[in-house]
Amino acid sequence: MRPHTTPVTQPTPAERLRTIITMAHSMTVITDGHEQEVYSLNGAGVMGRVHLHAPSDALSPGHRRPRAPIRLELTDVAPTAVRDRLRARVTLSGLVAATYDSEAAESACMELGQAVLEDAQGRSYVTLEELQAAEDDPLATCEAGMLTHLVAGHPELIPKLLRLVEPGTKQELVRALPLAIDRYGITLRLEYPMTQRDVRLPFPTPVTHLDQTGLQIHALLTAARRASHRLPA
Question: What is the domain extent for residue 64?
Answer without folding.
Answer: 13-133
